[in-house]
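P.,

For your records, the input lines for the assembly:
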Amino acid sequence: MTPAAADANAPEEPLAQQLQALIRAIELGGKAILPTSNDELLQSIVNAAARIFGAGAAGILLVDESDGTLVFRVEFGNKQPDLVGRRVPLNKGIAGYVAMTGQAIAVSNVQQDARFNADFAKSTGYVPNSILAAPLLLGERVIGVLEVLDKIAANSFGMHDMELMGLFAHQAALAIRESQQLEQIDSAIRQGLRRIAAAEGLPDSSALVAMLADTHDEATGPDDLLPLAAAFNDISRLGPAERRAAVKILAALAEVGRSRARPRSRYA
Amino acid sequence: MSEEQERPAWSEQFLPEAIRRLNLSDALSALTPEVAWGGSTGRGVRVAVVDTGVEADHPVFEGRVSGGVVIELNDQVEDGFVAIPDNPPRDVAGHGTACAGIIHRLAPEADLFSVRVLGDNMRGRALTFAAGIEWAIGQGFQVVNMSLSTSSADLQKLFYELADEAYFKNVCLVCAVNNIPAPSYPSTFASVISVAAHHSRDPWTYYYNPSPPVEFGAAGIDIEVAWINKQYATNTGNSFAAPHIAGIVALIRAKHPQLTPFQVKTMLMACAKNVQAL
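Structure tokens returned:
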């Protein structure tokens, strides 16, 4: 049900009821076309990865920048209990290497040097026979690591697997980003509509705008993005020449911004 | 579509059917592997491994890892980073140990040094990598192996400056290209020796590719490598191709210490398996 349809079918219905119906429609519509949660999407990605690469197990770890760890979000086929939710330091291990360097790697057949007899190798628990790990990259930003373990029909994952994994991981990263953005938009719309529905009487348009702006504060993102988005919207209605000019101006502004902030050292 | 035709990314330039046979100019026909590195063990050459660290006491190294540092960004100092001694060096992932072991296999008497740049947080990762390269250049290592790269366009200029700095300070930068099809710095710069994997397992077989973005192809598939905790593993990736070339560069630099980086690259090109004198 679209807002227009709601208006046409129930013109006499109080606004609050119309909005409640609209919220339900959005929720149902969202469930119909999207996974019910980001985790469900992640799960479908690891299931697909295990199938595509002929792996006995697979998992996704997402970067938590607040504490410098990778968090196991979903897994498929693993024998370890309580793997989901476990945190791995970014500066340790294969997954950490992949996250920090953005470089894919395939490792197999890890064996102890015969000249060295240590107990700790036994205490590391489950060691896969083979592993292929690739970064989940959005541009230069690594948002996580996709790994597949224990190739079923071969001793190791090959270069072909690695390159396909790079493409697959890129698509997975884009899907994760889309899903996260849709969740945020969905949440912001619902919050806004709930407020309107709860308001007394029929708000005029200025009150609506104020409420939506108020709602935006609860959503994520800088406050000045709304007016920026509104400006983009206005520009998009202009002619092609004006749009091209606007793109040039914005690109120049971005370049100035990049060149202006010269750090004291190269690494500041 | 065959499996090979589906293959994306940079390694396609080193598929058996894609390798171009090239003729060597008469002017360079005297350059052979025997001339370039015959009899060399890498003795006297210092090789920095900018990576996840190196497990120095792994038996594979036979004591050839002379030390290490951990690079950390620090805005309280003028350079913007500090190099903290890491002795004996340790490896937090296994990758650096694998790369250093490959270099040692080819250049058994070269001196290996660990420059660990795998920082503690995501924000500084590419910058820490750049700082590690800057430190290694400043220390005058003759060869720097980087089985890492960044696709950060914002840092292109910084890496470009570092590549030039290395070139003019007589430091050979050997850099793996990324396994995924995206520009990776500093491997795309002309003064850098860029490397991707090919299918041969022979550590001495490498190819020259005259078309950018990657110039050399070396063994990088199912390579037996040293791994952390005194282990061994079988690894695949462009990461493991670069140290094969770094090892050969170390041999060349030990035998011909007067050569500059572009002369070393010329020698590498002339001795590639697909390049033959007329």
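Two observations worth noting. Residues 1-9 of chain B have pLDDT under 50 and may be disordered. Chain B touches chain A through 67 residues (CB under 8 Å).

Regards
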